[in-house]
């Protein structure tokens, strides 16, 4: 086992000869074996234990075990205690995600320039590949757990769980077992208990096979990544756009698109990346909401990442019957039509016409406001205006739409319709018709 740890450190250039290491110590078999192996190989190590306080007395048991282990082996230990449940609620994260985030935060705070070593194994790598494959992935996901990333090293990445157990047994080393490892409540546990055994039945050497695949794909991914970085540097304007991208291979284009989004903490699915890539070849200007407050605009083959703003043109004037000046050089005409009681009113006019006698108090002409809501004709629920506009109106046209309200709220939205409470019916005597147009 020691030879495999040394090989992994050498193959991935994990450490300088005199580099200090902070070992993430849970007390489990993997982290105990890693700590003993690095100490045996002569590295300058210290440990960090993070108590997640998720398993009551068992969590405290693990902490005490780590304290005793480090004392017995003359290893410096720093212990952190974190409130995962509160953190997960505040951040709307699962407990598993919150625990990981807090654990790495503690490790980073303790490291102070030292490398952080985590005890991910060959088995963990196989489980990660399967997990990524089940969700859909590219080359990077099939490479599994990176051996080195952002100051974090995985010196056990060549070592199987069986080899770890033998090493600990041969050296008389004790460890603790997390009771949740036996549960199938977590995706990784289901993979470990149900999927991996079947793969090992099919191919007893599946761990070695996946390791060979990892090494091959890492080399190929590194080459493609270098090519895509060169393309990105050639096309990126240094701010928010990529030009000239369409002349490159699809694989390089899509990696550049992902990088542009990643720089702004935007994650996208395969389908969304493909959709953006297709926009490069549209003759007309196109726009796509990529979430997180951003749009991608493609104009003449140039991709532009545009940050949306929620600033609205704040226009609100009393509506006068006749012509009303509006924003952007637009004119809003309000016309009052007397209706003969014997006339049959066409209910289809309801989208554009208002029963004038149902209006409450004064009328105001305005632009949209944050949080606007309206209950449209013949609907038994209230709609969020933002949702309605997203479905019906191009983004660049929304700020110039005409909104009309009375003292009780919105009664008309241009191109959307009127409120149910002012709709036309058989008793309507006067109709208010509102028309907006550009001057």
What features would you describe in this structure?
With 439 residues, the protein is of the alpha+beta class. Helix content is 38%, strand content 20%. It has a six-stranded mixed β-sheet with strand order 3-2-1-4-6-5, with helices on both faces. The mean pLDDT is 89.
By secondary-structure content and strand pairing, the structural class works out as alpha+beta
Helix % is: 25-40%
pLDDT < 50 stretches: none
Strand order of the largest sheet: 3-2-1-4-6-5
The quaternary state of the protein chains shown equals single chain
Number of domains: 3
Judging by the overall fold, what is the CATH architecture of the largest domain?
3-Layer(aba) Sandwich
Question: What fraction of residues sit in β-strands?
Answer: 15-25%
CATH topology value of the largest domain = Rossmann fold
CATH superfamily of the largest domain: HUPs
Top CATH class of the largest domain: Alpha Beta
What is the overall pLDDT average? 89
Overall strand count: 21
The biggest sheet, with number of strands, parallel, antiparallel or mixed sense and barrel status, is: 6 strands, mixed
Number of helices: 13
Q: Give the CA-based shape.
A: elongated
Per-chain topology:
Elements (H helix, E strand, L loop, with lengths): L1 H10 L8 E5 L4 H12 L3 E8 L5 H16 L4 E5 L2 H8 L3 H17 L3 E3 L4 H14 L3 H4 L5 E2 L2 E2 L7 H10 L16 H16 L3 H30 L5 E2 L7 H13 L7 H10 L6 E4 L4 E6 L2 E6 L8 E3 L3 E4 L4 E9 L14 E3 L8 E3 L6 E2 L8 E2 H8 L10 E4 L2 E5 L3 E2 L11 E9 L1
Parallel strand pairs: 1-2, 1-4, 2-3, 4-6
Antiparallel strand pairs: 5-6, 7-10, 8-9, 9-10, 11-15, 12-13, 13-21, 14-21, 15-18, 16-17, 18-19, 19-20
